[in-house]
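Lecture 7 notes: from sequence to structure.
We start with the chain below.
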Amino acid sequence: MTKKIYIVTSGEYSDYEINAVFTTEQKAVDYVEQHGTNYNIEEYNLDEEVEKKTQLWRIAFCVEDGKLQDAIPTDYNRNEVVDTCYIFNTFKDYICFYIDADSMDRAVKIARERFAAVKANEYIWIRLTRPYEIDRYNHKKYERFNVATNKFIR
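Predicted structure tokens for the same chain:
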């Protein structure tokens, strides 16, 4: 059974305030009857279940030293990138992981574990870190690796 609380309020907008909180509706009604009619009684469920939603995170580590570069929520198409990793090259090489998790801390933890596993597998690591093509602008193109399916994607 869900516990309820009863909040006695008054005012509107910037004058809105909570005047009292009670565990029963009758106590809230008694308060209003003693203090006048300019009060409202609001009913709330106490400790409602909060649905944890997941977010797609892009977690990047420096390839050279393994330090966390960034952890940012992203709105990429989840179905296309979740559980994948790839090398991103700016001034340094970074390895990015797309992780579906309910918090940044959890996403970073999962990405660290996957980084260690990918780096430990020499075949995957070599294939990930060597570009398969260099375009006419001298940009390197790297394969993407899906850690859930163990498949490379171009």
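Points to note: The mean pLDDT is 91. The chain is about 25% helix and 40% strand.
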